[in-house]
Amino acid sequence: GKGYNGNFGIELTIDKNTSWTNTINYRKNKGDNTDLVFQNFYTPSYIYDFTKNRVNKEDSDSENIEYTTNFTKNFNKQGHKFSIDGSISSNDDKNVAVVTETGTNTSTTSLDNTINNQKRDQILIQSDYVLPLGKGSQFEAGYRGDFSKLVTDYEVKNKGIINVIFTNVLEYKEKVNALYTQYGFKQNKIS
Questions:
Q1: What is the spatial distance between Cα 165 and Cα 157, in angstroms, rounded to a whole number?
Q2: How would you classify residue 188: left for phi > 0, otherwise alpha for psi between -120 and 50, otherwise beta?
Q3: What whole-number distance in Å separates Cα of residue 98 and Cα of residue 116?
């Protein structure tokens, strides 16, 4: 197969305590895969009966793009920090297969087609805040959001006719939000 992958990133130093990093990644791949399956069939008394030959020729096309960002602010007090991270990605995979089946016991050739297309979009956001409160103690708080959508479009054709039993579109959505906070202290050897 053929493929291309490219990255570009930049870090901006806003001041001596603040930085902002951004990265873009792009990847595109094309490929093909051929599977050959030979099956020998035997009678119940283990005498050779016939052979089936199955050829599965699959072509695939994949395109992925992702943007990530990170912003970090360190305050004057040691350990006092705020950061936010984010990423947005989109993955698009298309697979088409032609399945040909012949047998030594028949002159008929069976022809099936499958299409398996998947598209995934994802957004991830995370933020953390750390505040030292004195000798050996600190307060932390944060947020994480993970939002994704996956659509799988699968189609099977037997001899050019759509097989509705195996053909479907599945859409999966996930939306996760989480908050956290914690307080920690250390005194002598106990924390």
A1: 10
A2: left
A3: 12
Nearest CA among 24, 175, 10, 8 for reference residue 90: 24
Identify whether the C-beta of residue 62 lies closer than 8 Å to the C-beta of residue 4. no
Helix residue ranges, H only, 19-113: none
CA distance 63 to 30: 9
Q: Are 127 and 73 in contact (CB under 8 A)?
A: no
- Spatial contact of 153 and 169, defined as CB atoms under 8 Å apart: yes
CA 142 to CA 180: how far, in whole Å? Answer: 5
Length of the chain: 191
Q: Which residues of the chain carry a pLDDT beneath 50? A: none
pLDDT at 39: 94
Cβ–Cβ under 8 Å, residues 131 and 138: yes
Residue 160 pLDDT:
86
CA 112 to chain centroid, in Å, comes to 28
Provide the pLDDT for residue 191: 64
Question: In what helix (H) or strand (E) does residue 13 lie, and over which residues does it extend?
Answer: strand 2-15
- Stated as kind and residue range, the H or E segment containing 47 is none
pTM of the full structure? 0.78
* Residue 149: partners with Cβ closer than 8 Å, 6 or more residues away: 120, 121, 122, 171, 172, 173, 174
Main-chain dihedrals φ then ψ at residue 77, nearest 5 degrees: -75, 135
Q: Residue 16 and residue 177: Cα distance in Å, rounded? A: 32
